[in-house]
Specification:
Blueprint: H1 3-13, H2 16-49, H3 51-88, H4 91-118, H5 120-126, H6 131-163, H7 167-176
Helix pairs in contact: 2-3, 2-7, 3-4, 3-6, 4-6, 5-6, 6-7
Length: about 180
């Protein structure tokens, strides 16, 4: 029996608690990696730069969460649809998901990232930035907005890979990222 068929039988026939335990272990590892990544970013910014830079990043970071939400939204929706299509053995839906999710993720990201880049200073000011902290926050936020289409798309793809049931692969991608 192929691995894909084994996983399908596992999902269809085992107890919910066993399925959740096995499939969620990689998500738990991802959450630890994300937390460590955030911790290390803050540690290095605070230690290698200064507290002003750290304060600027702290003001800009919640605004970047909006784009993370878009990537999660596109990826989770696509992953759910993919899981259903795999279960129904609907090849045409499976084949169209990646292109539609890609289009949605990129267009929606650009729809927010481009204006955010040009309005970075008022946005960081709205978050409470003034003086040197405002300048550091704007610099971080502008760079983040330039890279946003890439990391949002990466997040979307990661969610789609999870929808295929390839949790270890998705976790490995998050670790390397």
């Amino acid at each position: 029996m192929k691995a894909k068929d084994q996983q399908k039988q596992f999902i269809l026939n085992d107890s919910l608690s066993k399925i959740m335990s096995k499939l969620s272990i990689h998500d738990k590892a991802d959450m630890v990696h994300l937390g460590l990544n955030d911790f290390m970013d803050n540690f290095f910014i605070g230690q290698l730069m200064n507290e002003t830079a750290l304060a600027g990043v702290a003001l800009a970071y919640p605004l970047t969460g909006i784009l993370l939400g878009l990537g999660s939204w596109a990826g989770t929706g696509a992953a759910n649809l993919l899981s259903i299509a795999i279960g129904d053995e609907d090849r045409s839906t499976q084949e169209s998901i990646l292109s539609n999710a890609t289009l949605f993720a990129i267009i929606s990201t650009l729809f927010i990232a481009i204006p955010s880049y040009f309005f970075a200073q008022p946005l960081i000011r709205m978050m409470g930035g003034e003086g040197a902290i405002l300048a550091e926050g704007v610099e971080y936020f502008e760079i983040t907005m330039l890279a946003a289409p890439f990391w949002v798309y990466g997040l979307t793809l990661n969610m789609i890979i999870r929808g295929e049931g390839k949790m270890p692969t998705a976790a490995l991608m998050m670790t390397y990222g």
